[in-house]
Amino acid sequence: MTLVDYEALATAAQNARNLAYAPYSRFQVGAAVLTASGKIFCGGNIENAAYPLTMCAERVAIYSAYAAGEREILALAVVTATDDVASPCGACRQVMIELAPQCEVLLLNLQGDERRTSPHELLPHSFGPSQLDEANR
What we know:
By secondary structure, the chain is α+β, with helices and mostly antiparallel strands. The protein is built from five helices and five strands; from the N terminus they run H-E-E-H-E-H-E-E-H-H. The chain has a five-stranded mixed β-sheet with strand order 2-1-3-4-5. Strand 3, helix 3 and strand 4 form a beta-alpha-beta unit. The radius of gyration is 15 Å and the shape is globular.
């Protein structure tokens, strides 16, 4: 099993934050995921003038891992420039529940504050594939 180097993951997320495209909100977010194979995939939020088309950093990182064929995400780090650590939006929480349900989530700010949590703690009583399976019985 791959050990999680949280410092390296946090650094990767901070670097991804610097590459975020956030000309409208100016709220840059960086994320990095560590997969079971030991690879790190990064993402920054990418905004669009048609606001609903904006993609959060967490989803960019998770989708990048999946696009590369990775299916087991061990950890996810998210970095924001907020006074306290910021929590992922609901859409990102839903994606984590389905694509990275067992990962550890590390929320960080630029001052070094951190909180460790999980997708299930962030989105209790979530909707997921098991409900679809029940509906199709």
